[in-house]
Design a protein that fits this description.
The chain has 159 residues and is an alpha/beta fold. It is globular, with a radius of gyration of 15 Å. 38% of the residues lie in helices and 22% in strands. It has a single domain, classed as Fructose Permease (3-Layer(aba) Sandwich). The longest helix is centred in the C-terminal third of the chain and has 12 residues. A hairpin with a 2-residue loop joins strand 6 and strand 7. The strands form two sheets. A six-stranded parallel β-sheet has the order 3-2-4-1-5-8, sandwiched between helices. Strands 6-7 form a two-stranded antiparallel ribbon. Helix 5 packs parallel to helix 6.
Length: 159
């Protein structure tokens, strides 16, 4: 079962790994990111950030989708992490389950505007998030589980 899809351009780091583990009790992490999947040093760093006893798979987006649709993985509580709304859209669109999507941290870079604290988006990002809403996705915006819920749709009305 996929308990959540998180969008965070840093992928996996201590705050994400441990705060969400205690909140949703995931047993496995699937990182869906083409760059990380092809970078052995980054893969090693991501593997070191996972909590003990948790399985981790770092795959390109298409390979991650294939893995997420595998019946064996459906027996585990899975936390999926994507680095951007485009990849999250692709994953969400091609899996049977429709988990909550958490929009976490996306760093400021050229062409991106502040959407919510620690979340900078451009028009392409907003378009993919809007398409996720159209697909029926429930999108929350927060860094850690105990942060007050903010809903993407409400924030979008104000941006």
């Amino acid at each position: 079962m996929i308990s959540r899809i998180r969008i965070d351009d840093r992928l996996l780091h201590g705050q994400v790994a441990y705060s969400w583990k205690s909140s949703i009790g995931y047993e496995a992490i699937v990182i869906a990111n083409d760059n990380a999947a092809n970078d052995s040093i980054r893969k090693s760093a991501l593997k070191m950030a996972k909590p003990d006893g948790v399985k981790i798979a770092i795959r390109g987006v298409d390979e991650a989708i294939e893995l997420l649709n595998n019946d064996m993985l459906k027996q585990l509580n899975v936390f999926v992490i994507c680095s951007n709304p485009k990849d999250a859209y692709k994953v969400f669109q091609q899996i049977d389950e429709k988990p909550i999507i958490t929009l976490g941290g996306i760093q400021k870079e050229e062409g991106k505007e502040l959407f919510s604290p620690a979340v900078y988006l451009n028009e392409e990002d907003l378009s993919y998030l809007d398409q996720l809403v159209t697909l029926g996705a429930d999108i929350e915006v927060k860094q850690v589980p105990d942060e007050k819920d903010k809903r993407y749709k409400e924030l979008r009305k104000n941006n």
